[in-house]
Amino acid sequence: MVVLSHPAALNELFLVKASCKPSSMFTGVPVVDLAHPEAKTLMVEACQHVGFFKLVNHGVPLELMTSLENEALKFFVQPQFHKDKAGPPDPYGYGSKRIGTNGDMGWLEYLLFTTNPEVVSPKTLFLLHQNPQSFRSGVEEYTRAVKKVCSEVLELMGDGLGIGSREVFSRLIRDERSDSCLRINRYPACPELSVEVEALSGRNLIGFGEHTDPQIISVLRSNNTSGLQICLQDGTWVSIPPDHTSFFLGVGDLLQVMTNGRFKSVKHRVLADSSMSRLSMIYFGGPPLNEKIAPLPSLMSSEEESLYRELTWREYKSAAYKSRLSDNRLSLFHKSPTATH
Ligand code: GA4
């Protein structure tokens, strides 16, 4: 009998069974054209059924995306000891393999920047780049562009839900104290993960373990390497074909709270590849830390009960940072049925 031992570097922390079968319910990722007259309706439907959609015709030039991607790669090619000077993340900065502070690991390295002027990203982050100025302006320009798209999308969602003010979501990320962040993830190719290892042990290399994003909304752009998977409401995992020209939008936990569960915060994960490295850039749109978040009364029918208690983003963020990646953080804020009586 052939006994296959995993290559030393790939211990159980990285190799997991991550089955992904085609779901009969799923006809493909919902695609929304930002310029289409029905965009708001399609977005609302996608957020209700999947919590995720692909956005095309968004107006952000491909050059702006690839230019930041190239700047980031110039950071990542540097020697490990050099990159480590910008880490470990606290929670912003450079990180490698460790995600958060509670033992989660993934086959990736990353950079995390905050856009909140009241919180500071480590200065070394930019200084450790060969060309700090162009890296900084790349991050700033990209963030500005993606924030604009995100704000347009949130306005359309407000419109689509028919909740009086279309700015009810977008104002939260447009606020100058918005606690949003930008994450750049690089999932190196892992040649030790041969096809045989995968086939014989039925295991996959976890790049970023399953989780939901705690913020309002996430806007992801990646290179053309696959790896992203989302979990459908029937529990099946489906792979999302990459498209380096488009954005992928995901509902975050706070949007699920504000819509009283109508929009679903999408569970997702990333599997690493044996031959191609994946680079993704994700903008996480969050509100100011002191913002009170609760189900919107304008959305709820008169007899409808709030599923969640009011929280501040500071409170939710701090609970998130105390949790493990795969924990169901929203359940901590569920109103228990008895508490309402
Ligand atoms: C998931 C979404 C964002 O990447 C992130 C992540 C954060 C981190 O990497 O520091 C967390 C994770 C994320 C949720 C639970 C906690 C916090 C790692 C972790 C185990 C930056 C975020 O805001 O929450």
Automatic annotation (TrEMBL):
Q: Which catalytic reaction applies to this protein?
A: gibberellin A1 + 2-oxoglutarate + O2 = gibberellin A8 + succinate + CO2
For molecular function, the Gene Ontology terms on record are:
gibberellin 2-beta-dioxygenase activity; metal ion binding
Q: What is its EC number?
A: 1.14.11.13
Pfam families from the xrefs? 2OG-FeII_Oxy (PF03171), DIOX_N (PF14226)
* Pathway the protein contributes to: Hormone biosynthesis; Plant hormone biosynthesis; gibberellin biosynthesis
Annotated keywords: Dioxygenase, Iron, Metal-binding, Oxidoreductase
Which cofactors are reported in the record for this sequence? Fe cation
Q: Which SUPFAM superfamilies match?
A: Clavaminate synthase-like
The cross-references to InterPro entries, in alphabetical order and at most eight, read: DIOX_N, IPNS-like_FE2OG_OXY, IPNS-like_sf, Iron_ascorbate_oxido_reductase, Oxoglu/Fe-dep_dioxygenase_dom
- Keyword Iron included in the entry's annotation: yes
Biological function: Catalyzes the 2-beta-hydroxylation of several biologically active gibberellins, leading to the homeostatic regulation of their endogenous level. Catabolism of gibberellins (GAs) plays a central role in plant development. Converts GA9/GA20 to GA51/GA29 and GA4/GA1 to GA34/GA8.
Family affiliation: Belongs to the iron/ascorbate-dependent oxidoreductase family. GA2OX subfamily.
Protein's name in the database:
gibberellin 2beta-dioxygenase
Q: What is the lineage of its organism?
A: Eukaryota, Viridiplantae, Streptophyta, Embryophyta, Tracheophyta
